[in-house]
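Action item from last week, closing it out:
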Amino acid sequence: MMLLMLKVSDNRYGINVVEIVEVVPHVLLQKLPKSPVIIAGLLNYRGHIVPIIDGSRLMGDRSVKKCLSSRIIIIKSEKMRSSCIGFLAENVTETLKVDDSQFTDASIGEGEKSVVDKVILDENGMIQHINVTRLIPNELKSFMKSVNENESSLEDMMDGS
């Protein structure tokens, strides 16, 4: 399995590249009033409105810093009902090939609620695998659904019409 590596605080995470559509620079996002704190904003991605989740807010206590290694990872999984989502993260700098059989199950406590489903060790320490189907917390699913249903009105808002 090939992982796109990223960091939140000092923790290393990986996303399976099979579930990644594209990695784009950290650009200015359209803020959405009264949206949940982990929504960084909306991105006009090739004519489609894509909600962007702030990875540092989701798994930490601060927003993603805008630096050269910060990226928006556009994700689409066959198991996700919405079109695409974006995951804003820091230190998105490399890919790493790992042996899928070497992962250990990380379902501790909340199990299916955690975005991390398995872990692996390499020479630099622990890598936590992000399960993209668990990336959207339950409280955001209705928000995401409304974004997809109202995409045309949001596009008008972003264009200033």
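Closing note: The chain has a mean pLDDT of 83.
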